[in-house]
């Protein structure tokens, strides 16, 4: 990774979760010398996020950006379909070969596992994806951020912000990570202490699983 010339690629796919990509983006693009690019099959493509009401514009195609320094793969309800996209998966496998760090947020770790990058490695994801992660050869854990060499996986949605801070520490140092955290005023003080299955309790988990299923089936598949 050349000093002062760090390119971060965040691949987009239909029904990605917006915060999975935008959370890390907000921190990483503030680091001096870092350029963050949203990538998809075609540059200039407006990619629909999970609820269908938000679109992000890709600024480069996979072909335009074959060797980014850092990869941040978001998750979302569209992850399963994305795993069947040979253009996206081939890019991920090839880009990982030369990346300094390959990372994921939420169910984005399923893409890393499907690409063969997590075989036998401890990895995390959204709590609803542990079983699928294991089927793809990884060893699921409920840790919020997991580093295995140059691969970093993070848990559900909001954990991408934590992951980005870990990542900034690795390539720019602790002081820079602290400055970025202060700059975005990341000082979580949630009103309820139920942000993980261990804390939520059985009844809330059951209700939330139903809500999760309803949300994932809100939109029809892309035409």
UniProtKB/TrEMBL annotation:
Q: Which GO terms describe its biological process?
A: regulation of DNA-templated transcription
Q: Which CDD domains does the record match to this protein? A: GATase1_PfpI_2
- Coiled-coil stretches are none
- Give the matching Gene3D superfamilies: 3.40.50.880
DJ-1/PfpI domain location: 8-169
Name of this protein: DJ-1/PfpI domain-containing protein
